[in-house]
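2024-03-11 09:14:02 DEBUG pipeline.ingest accepted 1 chain
2024-03-11 09:14:02 DEBUG pipeline.ingest length=127
2024-03-11 09:14:03 DEBUG pipeline.predict start
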Amino acid sequence: MESGESWDVRHLEHDIIYWDIVVVTTLDNVQKDAYDALIQQRSTINRIPLGVDYLVITDPGKIGNGGSTMHAMHVLEQKYGWEVLRQKRILLIHAGGYSQRTPTTSCLGKIATSIPKGVIEIFLSEF
């Protein structure tokens, strides 16, 4: 995608399916605020798809991915209700943690790391 192009999924061809709701779980409120700001910034410059509900949810304590999934489902049910959720495509990304083994991504975590254009193609060409 070139800079300035829009990813507004409301106007994509009907055969392209994208998520209706993207949920990102975080370790704490500091990370939540950072992810909220990152999503806002990237949507403003068309770096992430528009027309998607992005929801950042803080995990209540160290509950692991299973507990985090259950908590996220509870928050989604409170916000949308089960009848609405049954008709939505939802992506849940567990992003809580500060990536301590990767110092360059420790502030926001690996989810905020950019992949240089072409890197995926280079890796795929080797298989």
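2024-03-11 09:14:41 DEBUG pipeline.report The mean pLDDT is 79.
2024-03-11 09:14:41 DEBUG pipeline.predict end
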